[in-house]
Amino acid sequence: MEELNRALIIVDVQPTFCEGGALGVDGGNAVADKIADFVTNNVDEYAFIATTQDWHVDPGSHFSTNPDFVDTWPPHGVAGTAEAELHEAIASLPIDVEVKKGEYEAAYSGFEGVDANDEGLESILRDAEIQAIDVVGIAESHCVKETALDGLKAGWPVRVLSDLTVPVSPEQGEEARTDMDEAGIEQIDSSEAFGFYEEGVDAEIPGDDGSDPFDQFLERVDDEESEPSVEDDYDDGDFSLDTDGPSNDDEESADLADRIRMGLAPLAGTQETGDEPSDQDTTVMAVEDEYDLSEFDDLPDIDDESIDFSDEVSEDDFDFRDIDSDPRLS
User: Fold this and answer.
1) What is the mean pLDDT of each successive set of 10 residues along the chain, which is 330 residues long?
2) Is residue 317 annotated as part of the catalytic site, yes or no?
3) Of 8, 3, 5, which Cα lies nearest the Cα of 151?
4) Catalytic pick among 12, 54, 134, 150
5) What pLDDT does residue 195 have?
6) Interior CA angle at 113 toward 175 and 58, to 5°?
7) DSSP-derived secondary structure for 151-177
8) Which one from 34, 54, 134, 143 is the annotated catalytic residue?
9) φ, ψ at 295 (rounded to 5°)
10) Which of 18, 34, 54, 101 is catalytic?
11) What is the rounded CA–CA span in Å between residue 133 and residue 189?
């Protein structure tokens, strides 16, 4: 994933917009604390951190004693008051520049503000060679949205971290998110901002394909029986290669894997006749070398001839009339 020279803009996180303030928004204090935690944990991801503040001296009709809460508002963010200062959770962060806006007129976007040297936010970010912008703060439905839209218009890719902002109302928040989405602003949770793996890539654990070790052994048996072997690869002191075609022993060995799966081939022991081990016994011994089968040593032997099922099934249990009447069998 390409590393970008990224800036974080923290919009208007001030007591005046939090619970108890002149224009308080529900959840404002919680958002301030969450932003502080996020910055503390991710400060190295940002080349630049800027804050914006409403800093109203005499904003004209922006203030009203009978506000409509669309174009006019009760007095808030009054310059020089404690309510207009940065929230205490934000003030302690490593901020590179503080931008103030709206001294003598309404101002929603942080790009309408200036720093202590009267330099605008866009110019400040270009001087810092910023390549991408993240926006958080208060309120999502107004100043956060307008700041994000202006950043996009200025040419930067913009993300809004949706859990680090809060709207004036749920309805206005939904409308703002729609506007930002249609404009092309990415809206994500802060937990997704800086993932360890690239999106869509699931790295496999080296050497672990997730298969069962016994299944891996059976696959090797299949492979070894289906592919020709090279005589030089083996110690043939006890064996010789049969070049005249498969023998009966070869045919039995070729089907060993299937019979092991079905429980029809023994997993322990060899022939007790004193003969040289067969191909099947050699393969079975390979199983013993790879697996501890000692727990099966004490299992009792079963004498098949001693079991009599003759009393359990009688001819009356079956109806052979259809067979007897079939002319094809006469």
Assistant:
1) 86 97 96 98 97 96 92 94 97 98 96 97 98 98 98 98 97 97 98 67 44 61 55 49 51 56 51 52 55 62 58 60 55
2) no
3) 8
4) 12
5) 79
6) 95
7) HHHTT--EEEEEEEEE-SSHHHHHHHH
8) 143
9) -65, -15
10) 101
11) 15
Sheet with strand 158-166: strands edge to edge: 97-101, 48-54, 6-11, 132-138, 158-166, 186-188
CA 245 to centroid of chain Cα atoms: 54
Query: Which residues neighbour 295 within 8 Å (Cβ) at sequence distance 6 or greater?
Result: none
Closest CA to 140 of 163, 180, 173: 173
Does residue 101 have an active-site annotation?
A: yes
Q: Which two tokens stand for residue 87?
A: 């929230």
Taking residue 77's Cβ as centre, other Cβ atoms within 10 Å add up to 25
Instruction: Report the predicted TM-score, pTM, of the whole model to 2 decimal places.
Output: 0.61
| Number of Cβ atoms within 10 Å of the Cβ of 291 | 13
What is the enclosing helix (H) or strand (E) of 86?
A: none
Query: Between the CA of residue 59 and those of 78, 84, 96, 303, what are the distances in Å?
Result: 10, 14, 27, 103
Separation CA 75–CA 63 (nearest Å): 5
Going along the chain from its start, the domains and CATH numbers come out as 6-192 (3.40.50.850), 213-324 (no CATH)
| Residues contacting residue 237 through CB under 8 Å, at least 6 positions apart | none
- Is the distance from CB of 179 to CB of 152 less than 8 angstroms? no
Report d(CA 229, CA 305) in Å as an integer.
41
Separation between Cα atoms, residue 49 and residue 43, nearest integer Å: 9
